[in-house]
Amino acid sequence: MLRERFSRPLDPRAVRFSASTDEDAALVGYDLWGSMAHVRMLGTTGIIPRANARRLETELRRLARRAAKGGLRLDPALEDVHLNVEVELTRRLGAEGARLHTGRSRNDQVATDLALYTRDALLAVEGAALDLVQTLLERARSPDGRLVVAGWTHFQAAQRVYWAQWLATHAVRFQRDVERLAELWQSLDSSPLGSGAIAGSSLPLDREATAHWLAFPKVNPSSLDATGDRDFATDTLYLLARLSTHASGLAEELVVGAMPEVGRVRLDDAFVTTSSLMPHKRNPDLAELVRAEAAPALGRLVAHLTLLKGLPVGYQRDLQAGKPLLIDGVRRGLGVVAVLTPMIATARFLPEKSRSTQPTASVELADALVIAGVPFRRAHARVARFLDRLEREGGALPELLRADLEKAFPELEGTSFTIPRPEDEPERRRTRGGSSWREVERLLVEVEQRSQSAGRERARECRRIDRRRRELGLPAGLFAV
Amino acid sequence: MLRERFSRPLDPRAVRFSASTDEDAALVGYDLWGSMAHVRMLGTTGIIPRANARRLETELRRLARRAAKGGLRLDPALEDVHLNVEVELTRRLGAEGARLHTGRSRNDQVATDLALYTRDALLAVEGAALDLVQTLLERARSPDGRLVVAGWTHFQAAQRVYWAQWLATHAVRFQRDVERLAELWQSLDSSPLGSGAIAGSSLPLDREATAHWLAFPKVNPSSLDATGDRDFATDTLYLLARLSTHASGLAEELVVGAMPEVGRVRLDDAFVTTSSLMPHKRNPDLAELVRAEAAPALGRLVAHLTLLKGLPVGYQRDLQAGKPLLIDGVRRGLGVVAVLTPMIATARFLPEKSRSTQPTASVELADALVIAGVPFRRAHARVARFLDRLEREGGALPELLRADLEKAFPELEGTSFTIPRPEDEPERRRTRGGSSWREVERLLVEVEQRSQSAGRERARECRRIDRRRRELGLPAGLFAV
Amino acid sequence: MLRERFSRPLDPRAVRFSASTDEDAALVGYDLWGSMAHVRMLGTTGIIPRANARRLETELRRLARRAAKGGLRLDPALEDVHLNVEVELTRRLGAEGARLHTGRSRNDQVATDLALYTRDALLAVEGAALDLVQTLLERARSPDGRLVVAGWTHFQAAQRVYWAQWLATHAVRFQRDVERLAELWQSLDSSPLGSGAIAGSSLPLDREATAHWLAFPKVNPSSLDATGDRDFATDTLYLLARLSTHASGLAEELVVGAMPEVGRVRLDDAFVTTSSLMPHKRNPDLAELVRAEAAPALGRLVAHLTLLKGLPVGYQRDLQAGKPLLIDGVRRGLGVVAVLTPMIATARFLPEKSRSTQPTASVELADALVIAGVPFRRAHARVARFLDRLEREGGALPELLRADLEKAFPELEGTSFTIPRPEDEPERRRTRGGSSWREVERLLVEVEQRSQSAGRERARECRRIDRRRRELGLPAGLFAV
Amino acid sequence: MLRERFSRPLDPRAVRFSASTDEDAALVGYDLWGSMAHVRMLGTTGIIPRANARRLETELRRLARRAAKGGLRLDPALEDVHLNVEVELTRRLGAEGARLHTGRSRNDQVATDLALYTRDALLAVEGAALDLVQTLLERARSPDGRLVVAGWTHFQAAQRVYWAQWLATHAVRFQRDVERLAELWQSLDSSPLGSGAIAGSSLPLDREATAHWLAFPKVNPSSLDATGDRDFATDTLYLLARLSTHASGLAEELVVGAMPEVGRVRLDDAFVTTSSLMPHKRNPDLAELVRAEAAPALGRLVAHLTLLKGLPVGYQRDLQAGKPLLIDGVRRGLGVVAVLTPMIATARFLPEKSRSTQPTASVELADALVIAGVPFRRAHARVARFLDRLEREGGALPELLRADLEKAFPELEGTSFTIPRPEDEPERRRTRGGSSWREVERLLVEVEQRSQSAGRERARECRRIDRRRRELGLPAGLFAV
Q1: Which is it for the CA torsion D334, D336, D339, D340, positive or negative?
Q2: Theoretical Cys-Cys bridge with A317: which of B4, C1, C38, C288, CB 3.0 to 4.6 Å?
Q3: What residues have CB less than 8 Å from C123, skipping those under 6 apart?
Q4: Is B12 on the interface with D (CB under 8 A)?
Q5: A381 at D interface, C-beta within 8 A
Q6: Residues of D annotated as catalytic (active site), given as ranges
Q7: CA pair distance A327, A367, nearest whole angstrom
Q8: Taking the domains of chain C in order of start, what are their residue ranges?
Q9: Cα(D112)–Cα(B295) distance, rounded to whole angstroms?
């Protein structure tokens, strides 16, 4: 098919190398949706006979139902999803099927499929990420959240904080991803359908009509841009890489926190494995796999940007290599979040072991000297030397006697300063955004509000899209990303 | 300095390897700004004596004026910009200088410097990109824009379009970058200053006050997030990579378009070079360098994401490796746009050579058959075979006689269809977003409005920021990104 | 299975996310081979009863035959190929199957599988690349090779060369890949099997014996290294990326060379496609897909290196994410070469169109002035100005009259210098490695010898490996990479 | 200069964007060396007058001495090192200077500079890596090496090993890098000089002579390849990325090992820092910076491969963007190794804390059951359940009474099996490559021999290169990479 000009069929090695039917399996629903909007418009405008359009629509709907049940297998010899569908229709409808592609190019068709797919995929990833944010916030408000732990910098005890602040901070990072995902699906608002190869059509296509049926608020105003633009795919892969990188940081903290020597996190049995050789092992494999996944997510982004480098506007076949990147990326990104959410929901965040009597209150001591009039840099130096001696003598800051403290720092005499007990430390820092519970509460409320607002907006968008699909009689099951 | 606890100075190889004074040169202004806001607040709140704060401020302002004139060299032995400034102040003010770092950590300080720098950098890149958009639009409205050229797909003539559509399409892509850059600087709205190491401070810091002086609308509500978050840097590198990739595609079209065999673009003498060996050469070196620059832009993004992979929240020293990525990225990104804009402004976009009589009207012919009732797929096959024969016989579609056409396609008899002359082809496709001038005009107006609106918003933001700096007496020249 | 210590089965989302059965399909043969070597050794050493070992071997062989026919499907609920095989054996042999894993860990097992797979994969890629080298050399020796074409720099005519030199230069680049691939499979000489989890075994395993049966010349001398080392996979992905990048450069030259405006390459009908909309199109899609493939090849390399960043020695589950990268990379790399080879074999490399009378002999003219005593830089400047005037006057260097030449360059009077005709130009440059046919011939002979020598060595290695597999009764069909 | 054909100078923005003088500073010595070999040959062959050649050589030598003292600053307005040198010579020698570039193009010149630079750089990196290997081996043979530590998988105690095995395993990984670096500099054996723009020269250049003076064993047999090939740079960046990734894994183990909770590594005071705010901190900043550096190393590799994607053979200006990648990469790679080596040399590797009584001997227990006839998989399950109960009851495997063991595992009655004490565990596993000291010793000897052999070969190559430079009178100090 489509080789009337050529003396030879496509080389079989070329057929194998160029077929995209594997990745196109994810696009079937979107391709059928696009075709249905297109033929309805072809009928309405009279470009093809109205009855012909109706039969095409019926047949497309039948195909959609079959596909929703997994009953449609794409034949690689027919290159891609587009040709598979067209051949299927022509087989059943003859000349009427041969009208399907009127006024359309595979260039605007694949752009449409990918935009529709990406919009759904972004909503799906956003939904999963919102669940993760909510889970982190719930754990912050659980009893574990009120426990105190030595916050790390450089993997060394820095200052003590509530687990709730740590959990909410991870929530904030994912909430940022949520908001960027939402911005991105909102920008996916223009229908490429009707852009032809690169320049539109001499047939009187009604692009507003197809845009309406595809739930696109607008029509892309440049056919040359619409057919070649894949910014939305790059942006998606970037946000997936960013999200996966956030997840990898959290996973690393779980892996290290779950070391028996550290013992500040206990992962649930449902998320650990043992060794095939060593019966004593309790391995955080799932956290490691989450940590790892940032790597292929980055690889896909690199591949997509490298692909686009030096490509002219308009359609080039190179773009095809972007499809599996996008589809694998969405699938694996969803997997990361799907496994991280219950892992967090079931993990236990533990109180500090008594042995970790690390002198994280050193700053409060220096601050007390500052209040007593000592320039900070000098206070810092004196506390440093004091702690060094204390360590060599085997003492511990939290257990220090008041008298010893005043001997070392006479300025503190008569002040109300005390070395805080570890569990009281977070309350000492009452600056905005600091570690005290009042500030943690403020943080929690802010993130909760932002995530709820995002959730509501997302729900509205999902309903808007579903409505169009229902109106066209397309089964919802066709669109499981 | 700062090594009171240790028995030994830092190893000299470690000093060399860890110093960041090279890249910090770009941050001097931002570091001074941050310090000035900080000491003013320390004085206002009474954390340090008010007179001390005033002297620190005066000294910082003096240093700022010196730095604006290039008179401040950072000493690598003093690690970074922060310590250089602190040592400088202590040298002049003694114990008063030793109060500068009160209630502050290098962790929140560097986060502040980078956020301030990035906000300015984004505005600078956006400004340059807006110039490029405007230049592309001006060329689209110039006489060159009304010329017709065969739009390519697969580097093969596809459909004829106005140069204006091609120029406006490149403008649209850069305009998308502009809008994402604007979204990003808008999201850079929270002051990290006052977050301490990771947990805030036990001193009564007024974070709203420092945020005000730094022109941040808000205070970051999690100290743990504020000190470790570098999402804004990753986002910046991503947008620079995206912008550079757009530029590389445009550059490739210039390089290929300027081939004598192709001859559709003529670059100005000011943007070509010759060979050191071959006196006949007229090489598009600058376009090649622009094309190339997408590669290091991507490399920096990769480096930054890889850096962050598996990092806990809070500060880790790994983050330092991100600074030169950001600063080089901004500098090179600005360079790409700075050279591309005048290259476009001075290039000539040429009318099609007469020999390119490629049959891009084949679609219009098939469409005419569709209107005459032939199913599209059959029309396509017939036209394909017809063109194959025509080519073998040495004929050219645009020169075909009406009679010959009707002989091949009897359906066209009696219709008004004609093969369009090449220069008339764009007008045939009058669908929304298509190649006709009406649609190109619509496109131009849309992009013009979007870019003007972005320009106005950007100007407001620049003024808002400048005002704060003026109020603090900081010279504008300090902030040339 | 393997969860005796845990209170709960693995979470179903975790099962889905962590299963590697998709990618492990490519490893089945290698896993069975490793297991067969292992049980034979367990029997010989008496670690398990000899009869037990024999039955395990028989059963593994049966499984191997089934797998070779595609009759073995891996169940994702059983995680990976290793557990699938073990469960299969236990199902048939009961307690005897439960001895399979004696003295073995999945850590050394997967390392063994991957090393065996990679060795075969490298030989396969090398074989394909050798075919490509040979095809390029054959085309260089075909009549097309004797045709002259303007060699490009900056996509501008630089100096004329034989197509043969261009073809041989591409051959040289791929030959370098061949040689690096060979170095890599030669370095894959150490058996990981018997390294246990990370530290070996307290059972008297005979690692030399298993190494022998797996055709490994040596045993890896550090168990800690053997289980965690994936350098060979990174190296493979690097070489695939390098090879794909070489292919992408060649593909770009085909795409641009096949532009009608350029017309120096004609791709065979079996490797071009048309448009679904535009019947006149003759698109070099396959060349574009080859060009594109360098991007995902790079993405996989990035993913693998990012994965390994910051990983300790020994086994971490993160390593699993490397398996699909390796396996997809090999498959796509083979695809690139498989399609490029016949594309080159069937393409036509055309003589220069008469209109390309570009003055590439400018250097020869300057050189003649040098021989006549003019310092080169002055000669260059004079020729440049001369050509500029010639161009403005519409003249062409190759058509210049002797008298006009001598008028411009009196130094040439009395010398034998002539402007070479385009087709004679390559013979003028007779330096080593230059464009004259004598040098091209020298180049061809060198590359032919290198590729033949590589081919012989590769064949020896293939035979050596096959012998072991035959001795163990393993069907060859099991090892189609 | 070089713009005789053009009506306008290069645009000032283009000059800034395209100058490569910053990175070329590292190439000055190599450029002068190449020019000296070239002019000597020009004189010997009589292409330029012998006296002229001598004066050029003298002047180049003078420039070399000046450059070695840092007295040569490259002017960006003169684009690159090549033009800077040529202008300098012409300023002093007039017409004689104008002969320098005879028979040479910047294309073969820059290829020569980069090949010479890269050869030296590889030798430098190899030398540094050999020091690191030797340091690791020395620490393995130090008293620390005989201490026993729980080897990790998944950051969980797996099996106990000697620190020596861990150290030697890291040595093996770097030794592999050493060997690949050596292979690479050996393959850098062909002189590009004399390849002209892409096609050689019509002047009778003696390429063997220049190759000799540049210490290249051979002449590159394809001028088209020689001018455009940058495989050696990509390979270098790949090996630097691999080496940095190895370093990052080691650094991660140092960072985690130095956590007070873990306490198995103590970094020397000369390689730790404190916090500017928290006087108690003892941060492994240098280890973190080493860990981080794998990220920009990867970024540079990505940039270089992306750069080359889709580039034709021959010279394109895009290649220029590869120069800073290579030069920065070498400098930072050397920095990583330079700081890691003394960090390892001064770190203390500590014996296990008594509390880490993790049951890593579980495998030995299961193996004992295997010897007693229990199928392994069943032994594994029984030990797993046993350990689970033991843990719940608060018992520890190493402290278990014989009687209790036999009660749980009656099969062990009458056998000589005992649970090994932690410090005896490594000796239990006596398989090849296992954890016993005999095997560690074998490993140490192998790595020592490989690294010594590499060291000798490297020294020979350095001497060979130095000899040529001395013969030409070039100061050694010119070639500090």
Answers
A1: negative
A2: C288
A3: C185, C458, C461, C462, C465
A4: no
A5: yes
A6: 154, 275
A7: 53
A8: 12-102, 109-354+436-479, 362-419
A9: 23
Does D242 contact B at CB distance below 8 Å?
no
From the list C3, C105, C276, which residue is nearest A101 (CB)?
C276
Which residues fall within 8 angstroms of residue D15, CB to CB, at 6 or more apart? D76, D77, D79
Distances (CA, A) of A403 to A371, A381, A411, B180, B190: 19, 21, 12, 60, 43
**Tokens (6 digits) for B128:** 């340059």
- How many Å is the maximal CA-CA distance in chain C? 100
Let me know if C275 is a catalytic residue: yes
CATH architecture of D109-354+436-479: Up-down Bundle (1.20)
DSSP for A60-109? HHHHHHHHHTT-----GGG-SHHHHHHHHHHHHHGGGGGGTTTT--HHHH
**What is the pLDDT averaged over residues A377-394?**
93
Residues in chain D within 8 Å Cβ distance of C107: 153
Q: What are C384-397's pLDDT values in tens digits?
A: 999 999 988 888 88
CA B23 to chain centre: 20
B205 and A241 in contact by Cβ < 8 A? Answer: no
Burial letters D324-353, b for 16+ CB under 10 A, else e: bbbbbbbebbbbbbbbbbbbbbbbebbebe
Of A153, A225, A231, the CB nearest to B315: A153
Contact across the interface for B431 and A196, Cβ inside 8 Å: yes
The class level of CATH for B12-102 reads: mainly alpha
Mean pLDDT of chain D: 95
- In eight-state DSSP terms, residue D273 is B
**Looking at chain D from residue 28 to 57, which residues have their Cβ under 8 Å from any Cβ of chain A?**
none
Tokens of C140: 């260089």
pTM of the model: 0.98
Q: Give the residue from C306, C319, C327, C337 with the most A CB atoms within 10 Å of its CB, the best one to mutate.
A: C306
Find out whether A303 and C298 touch, Cβ atoms under 8 Å.
Answer: yes
Q: Tell me how far apart the alpha carbons of residues A96 and A98 are, in angstroms, rounded to a whole number.
A: 5
Mean pLDDT for C74-81 is 94
The rounded distance, in Å, linking the Cα atoms of D201 and D110 is: 17
Question: B233 vs chain D: nearest CA distance in angstroms?
Answer: 15
d(CA D381, CA D388): 11
What the block records as the tokens of D248 is 């990052």
Contact A342 C316 (CB under 8 A): no
Query: Are B356 and C383 within 8 A, CB to CB?
Result: no
Determine the residue among B1, B2, B4, B11 to mutate to test chain D binding: the one whose Cβ has the most chain D Cβ atoms within 10 Å. Answer: B11
Can you give the pLDDT at residue B282? Answer: 93
Spelled out in words, what is the top-level CATH class assigned to the domain D362-419? Answer: mainly alpha
pLDDT digits (tens, 9 = 90+) for D366-402: 999 999 999 999 999 999 999 999 988 888 888 888 8
How many angstroms separate the CA atoms of D146 and D167, rounded? Answer: 11
Complex ipTM tops 0.90: yes
Instruction: Report whether B272 contacts B283 (CB < 8 A).
Output: yes
Nearest to A330 by CA among A175, A179, A125: A125
Closest CA to D234 of D111, D318, D325: D325
Q: Which residue of C has its CA nearest to A302?
A: C299
Query: Which C residues in the span 306-325 are in contact with B, Cβ-Cβ below 8 Å?
Result: 306, 309-310
Question: Which residue in D165, D161, D167 sits closest to D136, CA to CA?
Answer: D167
Q: Write out residues 199-228 of C within 8 Å (CB-CB) of A.
A: none
The pair of structure tokens assigned to A90 is: 């022509």
Contact state of B224 with A364 under an 8 Å Cβ cutoff: no
| Contact call for residues B445 and B107 (beta carbons, < 8 A) | no
Residue from B7, B154, B354, B416 carrying the catalytic annotation: B154
To the nearest whole Å, the CA of B89 is away from the closest chain D CA by: 16
